[in-house]
Specification:
binds flavin-adenine dinucleotide; four-stranded antiparallel sheet; alpha+beta; 3 domains; four-stranded mixed sheet
Length: 384
């Protein structure tokens, strides 16, 4: 077991850190912190992500992807502003689905622009009654000759308002055993009519989270992708990878808050000495560091398991549940170390806390993640 980064990992991490500081953060800084970024700004960011080779990390180099190990990708995503990281995993996850589930003509038509960051993609699964229960999708698919028609609505879809391509999970109804016949449909925004409404939320406010409404939206039947009923398997594989990645986005936020708290503790004085010289403040600092280091290691360990081909359903659920909670707590403590400044909008730690809280919802809420881990331990599902 090796706990230090290899030379290659150091180089990749440094390249992402530098590009993020010099080329991505300035784009975010030019726009209001509480409004979704315009598409033009997103495309500027995606051009940088493409140059870094992380717009398609999970597909092989021969297919135009990055062919990255998940651990390496995780270390890189940890360097990005989390609002960018979340958008990226929606985009590249959709690219992986197109790569693995679409015929060659569709791959050739969409993948080059998506990988080059000239177009943006997303995946829409969640509905009002199909959140944690992702198999309960009700959005209807009707096939009529060369065309298919989609009717229903999706909620909380990352990137939807800026996406050129949207991968929508639907159902053809139920089979003779009462099982839903799930299908996925690839929609090209320039050819399909649907309505997208941005949803105001507490954090990650420069990002895009939308409701999408389809009213008999017409798509070529050739855009129905994947095998019948393979959606659950595809989603599980994607989630296993995404969960520790989301944990690392929270680690990014907590580390930033910790760096600020440490500096503040070394310079701000009360009772005639710097506050970091008081025992209780040192305890807070020690606690914050412990939470961050354990969260980071747990996420790395889950990603490494995926790279080694070891079943990671439990470890990846555990990593996201622990990291999102630990980092939220770490940021709260960093706010505490700052006293009144901790809750001021001027410093921005309160924004980090709001951003971190957002990550407890996508790709498995904490209760669901505990049930996934429990199922691995017991061999018994306790969902229903
Ligand atoms: C930032 C963000 C990005 C997102 N991006 C996307 C995206 O790109 N695409 C997409 O499709 N969706 C996306 N989502 C949606 C997200 O996946 C869902 O919101 C999530 O799955 C929870 O579903 P829900 O909101 O319907 O809550 P529910 O599933 O209704 O959960 C409500 C509560 O009930 C609990 N609960 C549910 N079932 C059980 C059970 N069996 N046992 C015990 N407790 C249970 C949950 O733990 C939770 O506490 C995103 C959400 C957010 C916040």
């Amino acid at each position: 077991m090796n706990f230090s980064q290899t030379d290659d990992q150091q180089m990749m991490v440094e390249a992402v850190r530098r590009s993020s500081q010099e080329r991505i953060e300035p784009v975010l800084a030019r726009h209001p912190v509480d409004k979704p970024l315009p598409k033009s700004a997103m495309l500027e960011i995606y051009a940088v992500l493409a140059e870094l080779g992380i717009t398609a990390p999970r597909i092989p180099v021969e297919a135009g992807g990055g062919g990255l190990k998940m651990l390496d990708y995780g270390m890189m995503i940890e360097q990005l502003p989390p609002v960018v990281g979340l958008s990226l995993i929606s985009h590249e996850g959709t690219i992986s689905r197109i790569h693995s589930g679409c015929p060659e003509d569709i791959r050739n038509r969409y993948l080059p622009d998506l990988i080059a960051g000239r177009k943006i993609a997303c995946t829409a699964n969640t509905e009002a009654g199909a959140g944690s229960d992702s198999g309960a999708v009700r959005t209807k698919l009707r096939i009529d000759g060369d065309w298919a028609y989609v009717t229903g609505s999706k909620m909380w879809i990352t990137n939807a308002s800026v996406a050129d391509v949207i991968n929508v999970s639907c159902t053809l109804g139920t089979d003779e055993n009462g099982r839903s016949m799930g299908r996925r449909v690839l929609m090209d925004r320039s050819q399909c009519e649907y309505e997208v409404r941005e949803t105001p939320v507490m954090g990650l406010q420069q990002g895009h989270l939308s409701e999408v409404v389809f009213e008999a939206t017409r798509v070529p039947a050739g855009h129905i992708i994947g095998e019948a009923g393979d959606a659950a398997k595809t989603l599980t594989l994607a989630w296993n990878g995404n969960r520790p990645l989301i944990g690392l986005m929270c680690v990014h936020l907590a580390q930033k808050a910790f760096d600020l708290a440490l500096e503040h503790a070394k310079t701000h004085k009360q009772f005639g000495k710097v506050i970091g010289a008081h025992q209780l403040v040192q305890q807070d600092l020690a606690e914050i560091e412990t939470l961050i280091v354990s969260a980071r290691l747990m996420c790395y360990s889950a990603l490494d398991a995926i790279d080694r081909g070891v079943r990671a359903n439990g470890s990846s659920a555990m990593a996201k549940r622990f990291a999102t909670q630990a980092c939220e707590r770490a940021i709260q403590l960093a706010m505490q170390v700052h006293g009144g400044m901790g809750i001021s909008q001027e410093l921005g730690i309160e924004r980090m806390w709001r951003d971190a809280r957002m990550f407890q919802v996508p790709d498995g809420m904490n209760g669901i993640l505990a049930l996934i881990q429990g199922r691995e331990l017991m061999g018994i599902g306790a969902f229903r």
